[in-house]
Structure formats: structure tokens, C-alpha cells
Amino acid sequence: MRLDDPKFLARLESLYLLARRVIGGSLAADRRSQKKGSGINFADYSEYQYGDDYRNIDWNIYARLETLVIKLFELEEDVSIHIFLDISHSMQKKFDYAKQIAAAIAYIALCNQDKLIIDTIDDKLKNLIDPCRGKGKVMSLLKTLQNIELSGSDSNFNHSIEQFQKRQKQSEVCVVISDFFFSEGYKKGLQQMKYKKNDVYCIQILNEEELKCDYLGDLEIECIETGRKRKLTIGPREQEKYNKLMHKWNEDLNKECSKYEIGYIQAVTSKPFDEIVRDILSKGGLIA
Amino acid sequence: MSFLNPTALGLLFLSIPLVAIYFLKVRPRLKQTTTFFLWDELFEEKKSSALFQKLRDWLSLLLMLLVLFFIIFSISEPSFSGDNKKDYLIIVDNSASMATKGEHGMRLELAKEKARSLISAMSLSTKVSVLTLSNGLRSLQTRTSNRKSLNESIDSIETSLYGRNQSLLEHFIQNKDISKNFRVFMITDKGFDPFEGAEIVEMIKVGGHAENIGITDFDIRYSMTKSGSIDLFFRLVSTYTETKEVSLIFSHGDEEQILKVIPCTVKPGINKPEIFSSENNLPGKYTLRCEIEDALEMDNNAFAILPEIVPIKTSIIGEDRFYLEKCVTAFKGYESIMALVDREADLTLSNGIVSNENKANIVFNPIAKSSVAEVIGEINQIGLISVVNKEHPLSKIIDWENVVFKGVRKIKLPPSAFVLVSTESGDPLVYLVKTKSTSTLVVNMNPKESNFFLNPYFPMLVYASAHEMLNLKTGEPVLYRPGQIPNIGGLNEDSTLELFEKFELDENANEDGSEIKKKAFPFSKLGFIDVETPQGEKSFACSIIGKNESLINDADFKTTLKAVHMGLSPSKVLVYLALFVLVLECMLYHYRKVG
Q: Nearest CA to B270 among B213, B231, B190, B218?
């Protein structure tokens, strides 16, 4: 399905409506932040510290406990949503799916009046969509996404994020859409993403073939990105080992994300993309 | 090493297309992957089998080439032994001693196993003939390379009751065709006496030392010294290394009523014969059983038939009755074979008077004219005596030249007369006259004057001529050994005669391919055999396999086998190897195709 197809747009719209129900407003900068600040919604109490605003002191509590306590409110801020889309050749069979998820997130962000930036990752970082805002940018965004093609010879996530890190000025909500099959690893990149207090979300796109090895016998295995080849005879033992390695790889990614307080969701291509977006919405944090 | 079929090595050129096909066709499937780095880890783990990884592309080709080479070499029939060009002639001894049971089983079964090993190991082009040797040399299979037929022939071999006839083997080996074209294997338990051509026979010994006691001689007779008793005679042989005490049970009849239990001390080797008496003189079946469990069972029993004696009813006519009666009654004490009667006699014994009315007649000193003798004068000087018919049974037992003939008369012989003894001038002295119903022996002498009544030949002449004329058999054996042919007239040949085969090589066989056969009586088992004869039902005893068979050990006999493969032939080994490698390649192929 093309991204500028009306049916696809209708699906994006229904996702946005769902997002609105979760968010509960349509004003600019009304994205609920995890940070505390000067909003109107009560969030928590905190012990008074030198320099805190007197107006936020809860005098009722002081009357009862003789302790100065200030009220904290949810910070309502205007943030940038920065999507990193993996366009390396390893995404070949999952690329449409990844683009659909990227389109859905971008659509909701634009409709929410958030600032949106889309970069692509292969062996280096490339800018796909310059910072933009507002629903009017939707069609040009979708066309750009539609026309993007796979590139690169050996994707390098760490290097790409390093590039992003160098030019970043303020914290952002970063969404990485990738299979995270980086031979150089991803830990350093994830770590760097957190430096500027970014809210980071990883959406790992996988297909069934990758999750489970279902081929047997003599094979010449070729790396889809580098073109390297090796001959191997795959038996049940090799199958089992591969499955274990794959499971461990995904588990490690999940653990790393937890470690750095990065949101993580695994999206298998057999599942419709809007279900994945609904999951993201229901979990909250990213776009709602 | 040599090849019996070297031309097959030319098939090695097939390896060229095999290699070509391998290089052109065998390529693994290409599979693109997004997770090459994960597979890399697997490669790292499999580094220990790096050699295999290097060889993996060549392994299938190597295995298939091996299969090809094994098959081609198998067809080429490699051989490591000499005399490759000769066919095999396997002679299996199936004489009675081969029924000996030893530690490893029956000797015949061991022999069959050896024969199968030879057949199994022979090259594909070798042809084999299988024979058995006991009392005859019997061909079971002639010159074939068909393993199935050969093995079936081997399986069909059974032990016989007969001893081994060495002369047949000797005669057989003389055939030049045998020594030229065959390797002759004799699988037996005992050696042969030296004979010409024995060196071409490769002996294969089966069976080791075994312990056996056997009855090798057995006879029973009416007692001559004790009326109403019988005497039994037997001999034992032993292969035990020490003296053994055994009991022999002597019994009578089908029910085996025990008459005597005879304790015996049996020494190693051939023992002295033993003679015992038994208070029983009933005719019929007698069994002597040796109570011991030993290696050979069939010689533990001996069977015999004591015949019923029907005395010859004899009447006396003429002069000197006393002598004639004494001659008859002389046989009374022993088996009562002659009895004096006044009438209804079978035999008439006369002196002076010619009587030829009975079935058998013996006439001494004929003086009256009759149909058997017409006296025409007297002879004073007879001169030398001439035995006209030396082959006649009477001539064989009586030395006529030492008999004194006095009172001889000149006699005109009837046309049917058959002269046994005559004077030099041709006057008959002893002659036989046979008509349709009567037989008469005329002895032309005066027995009293010639002192013939006191001559030991007198009763012998009476007894032998009576049996001859009455066609009675004398001295019928109480038992027959396996292979002996009893004389039974009028036997139904179709139903009771068995055919024994005589081995001949192809060129000596009958034109129609059938083998020359000889008829014999079917003693197919030891024991008593009841036969329907024209004279009525008659029982025979078949017993005693012989001392050579009962003495089952031959420590001096050694295997003289030249280089020969036994078990698996090199060709077969190669075929099995090819199959093994093929299965290996199939497994590898399967593993490579479907893991």
C-alpha cells in the first residue's frame, strides 16, 4: 500500500483520533511530558529547597506537619519529535512496514503541532525531512517517505548517532525505527542518545524469517548489506543455535533499553502496523 | 595381488564424468541474510572442524569416487591367493562319524560351515562342484557359480549311516581333469590312508577330540553247547582316554523285554570281543544298548534278527540207514536244521534205491534203473577224478579230488543231467538232475565201501546239497550293516528300491545328462526294518556303522589347506565397503539437503 493512498491516510487519521482521545486536547504544546514543571496538572509533592517558587508551597500541609512542601505540576512543553529511520539493506523486506510506522508517528506528531524531523540511518546519518510542523506538511512528508530507497553498504548505528549527537542543540523525543541488526552493535549509539536527556524510543522491526531459522541443508549465506559469503551446512543443531543467538540479541536490546530508560517495542511484520501504533499509544509516553 | 577380471579396470574412466558432473552441478543454494553477524558467530564455533569445512566441498566427490573404485575393483575380482584360475571341488564327508557332536556342534554342521565359507570367499567367476563322500561319492551340484544353488546344496547335506569309502575318492582323483581344473577340498573329520594323487586334495579338518563308546560287532546264534539258549557276541571300541565302566542292556522284541544287563569295562581303543549266553532262544528282534551319553549316539545301539529255523523234513530209504540217520540227527543239536520224518518229506536220502519223488533227493550208489540213472555196467578202475564244474557251490565246499570213489558204476545219463564230477574218461561220479518239480543229486559210489559215511564231507554234502536243491538260504546274517544289499527276490522295485548315484564328471555323464545310478536296498535308518516280500512280511536289522566310524578321533590328521580365502571374498568386501560409503554419502547428502 502506498503511503499517499487515501485508505492509508484514513488509517492514519483514525490513529490520530485515537491519539487525541488519549491526549485529551488539541492545543499546541499540549503533549504530556514526563518532566515536572509549570503546568496546570498536579503531578507530585517535593520538599522545599532554597530557590523554589513560594507560590507553590502547600500551606495546608505546612499547617499540619510544620514542613515546607511544594506542589509539582506536569510540564507542558513544545518538543521536537525526531524519527531515525533505518534504510540499510537489512530492512529490505521490512522497509514498507517501517515506513508505515514512521508515517503514522509523523502524522500524529504533525497533527499535534509538534516539531518533526526525520533522519535516515545507513552507514551514515542523512536528513530526510527538515524540521516542520503542522498538518499541512503531511502529504509532502508521505511522498518523501514513499520515495525513499534503501542505501548504504554496511549500516553503522553508532556512527550515525555520533553524527546526530554532534549537531543536536536541545533535547528531543527520538524514535529509532530499525531492525537493530548492526554488526558494529548499538549500545554506544543508545548511550549517546541519552546524553542530552532525550526521550528515546526504539521500535525494532523484524520479520518472521529473521526470528526463526527455517532453512536446512547446504547453504551459501550472503550478507545482504556487505555481500560477504560463507558456506554452511545447517542442521537442527545450527538452527537451534541461531534461534538462541537471535533471541539473545533481542533480549540484550531490550535490556539495554531498560538500562538507559529507553522505550522499546518489537514489531513483527506479520502484525498490522496500526496495531503497533495503538500499542505505542496505549503505553503512552511517546506521542501521547 | 592379481585381478581375475582385469578388463573391468577400464571402467575407471567413469570417474571422469563423475568429477565433471560434480563440478558442474554441485553448488549450494544461495541464501541472503540480514543477520550475517549472527551466522559469523556460528562459524567461529565451528572452527574446530575447520578441516572438515575445507574438505566439505570435496567430501561428496571423494566418497562417490570411492564407491566407483570399490565397485570397479570388485568387478575386477582381486585375489591374494594362488591357483586363481581353478574352480573349486568341495567334497564334504557325510559318513556316520560326522554325526559326532562336539563342543562347537555337530561335525557335519561345522563342515557345512567351512564349505559355506569357501563358497562365500571365492571369486565371482569361480565355479564350484559340491559332492558328498560316505559309501558313495554323490554329486549335489556341478560346476556352478550360483551362490544360492551352492548354499542350498550344502544345506541339503545330511549325515549318512555309512562308513567312508576311500577307494571312491582315490578313483575319482585319478581323473586328470580333476587335478588340472579343480582345487579339491575335502572337509572331513579323519584322515585317509596314503593314496596316489592325495597331494592334490586339500584337507580341511573339522571337529576335535570327542569321547565315544560304540558297538562295532554284534552277532547272536542259537547256542551249540546249551540247548534252549542263544549266544551273543559283541565288541566295543572307545575313544575315551581312560577306562570306562558301562552297562549294556540286551533285550528282545519290539517291547524290548530286558534279558540281560551286561556290565562292561571298556578300555581305550578296540576292546576284545565279549561272548555271553542268554536263557532265551526265541526267534525275532534283539537289541543291545550301551547305556552312555557320548559324542556319537548311533553306535550305542545294535540290532539283530534271530531267524526262525524250519527244519528240512528228511526221509531215509535203502541200505545203511544208521549212517544216513546219524547224518540227519547230527544237525539236530544246532539250530535243528534237519529232522527225520516218515512221510511228507522235503528231502529223501537214499542209498542203493533210487528215489526221486520228493522235491529234493540225494541218491548214493544207484543200482536200479530209474529216470535219473540207467546203470549199464561197473567200473573197476576210475583213474583220476575230474571236477567238471568248479563254480558250483558243492564243488566249492567239498574237495572232490580227496574223496575216495569205490563201487562206481557206468551210468547212462539222462538228457537233463548236470555233471559236477566225473572220471577222467568222462563217466559221471556226481551229477544233478532237475525236472520241473524235483531235483536229484546222484552220487555214483558205494559210500560204505568208500568209507564216505565216516568222511567229514558226508554231512556237508547232505546239508549243502539239500539247501541248494530246496533253494534255502544258508547263513543269512542276523544283521546288515548300512549299505549292504540283502538278497530279497521279487521285491517291488518301484516302491522300495532307492537309487544311489555315482558321481561322474560332465563328460562322463550319460548323454541325457542324468547320472549313472545303481539300485540298492533302502536302509535309511538304523534299527529294524519291516519289508513286504513275495514270501510275506520279513524283518531286517540294520546296525553297526563300523569301527572306523565309531573311532571318531584322528589326532594325527591335520588340515593341509593351501592359501585360500575363507569368509568374505575381496570382491565382497569391496562391495560391502562401497555400500557402506554409499550409505555414508546418502546420509551426508540428506544432511546437506535437509539438515
A: B213
Under a CB-based contact definition with an 8 Å cutoff, are residues B313 and B339 in contact?
yes
For every one of its 595 residues, what pLDDT tens digit does chain B have, with 9 covering 90 and above?
666 667 777 778 888 888 888 777 667 788 888 888 888 887 777 665 666 666 766 788 888 889 888 888 888 777 665 555 578 899 999 988 999 998 888 999 999 999 998 888 777 778 889 999 988 888 888 888 888 889 999 999 998 888 888 888 888 888 888 878 888 899 999 888 888 888 888 899 998 889 999 999 999 988 766 767 888 899 999 999 999 999 999 999 888 889 989 999 999 999 999 998 888 778 889 999 999 999 998 899 999 998 887 788 889 888 888 888 888 887 665 555 788 888 888 899 988 887 777 788 999 988 877 888 877 777 777 788 889 888 888 888 888 888 888 888 888 888 888 999 998 888 899 999 888 788 899 998 989 888 898 888 888 888 888 888 887 755 678 888 877 766 655 443 443 333 333 323 334 444 555 544 434 455 667 888 877 666 667 788 888 778 888 888 888 888 877 766 666 677 778 888 999 988 988 887 777 776 6
Bridge partners for A80 per DSSP: A115
Half-sphere exposure of B306 (CA within 13 A, CB side): 24
B306: left (phi over 0), alpha (psi -120 to 50) or beta: beta
Residue range(s) of every CATH 3.40.50.880 domain in chain B: 312-469
Q: What is the pTM of this model?
A: 0.52
Locate the DSSP E strands across B60-176: 78-79, 87-93, 101-102, 105-106, 128-133, 137-144
CB atoms A219 and B37 under 8 Å: no
CB atoms within 10 A of CB A135: 12
Domain ranges for chain A, please list them. 6-25+78-283, 32-76
Q: What are phi and psi of A168, to 5 degrees?
A: -70, 140
| Three-class SS state of A92 | helix
Q: What is the dotted CATH code of the domain comprising A6-25+78-283?
A: 3.40.50.410
**Using CA atoms, how far apart are residues B332 and A76, in angstroms rounded to an integer?**
154
Interface of B with A (CB under 8 A): 27-43, 45-46, 53, 56-57, 591-595
Cβ neighbours of residue B206 under 8 Å, at least 6 residues apart?
B98, B107, B110, B111, B114, B187, B188, B189
In angstroms, the CA A151 to CA A158 distance is 17
Q: Which CATH class is domain B312-469?
A: alpha beta
CB contact under 8 A, B593 and A220: no
**Subunit contact B30:A220, Cβ cutoff 8 A:** yes
Question: Which class would CATH give B213-307+543-548?
Answer: mainly beta
User: C-alpha cell of B366?
Assistant: 544207484
Q: Do A222 and A228 touch, CB atoms closer than 8 A? A: yes
| Alpha-carbon torsion (B326, B331, B336, B342), positive or negative | negative
The residue written with cell numbers 509538534 in the block is A114
Residue B475 contacts residue B505 (beta carbons within 8 Å): no
Closest CA of chain A from B577, distance in Å: 26
* Cα–Cα distance, A250 to A15 (Å, whole number): 28
Measure the CA–CA gap between A99 and A145, rounded to whole angstroms.
7
β-strand partners of B443: B364, B430
- According to CATH, where is 2.60.40.150 located in chain B? 213-307+543-548
Q: How far is residue B463's CA from residue B470's CA, in Å, rounded to a whole number? A: 11
A24, with CB counted inside 10 A (0-12, 13-18, 19+), is: exposed
Cβ contacts of B34 on chain A, cutoff 8 Å = 89-93, 179, 181, 210, 224-225
Give the residue on B whose Cα is nearest the Cα of A238.
B42
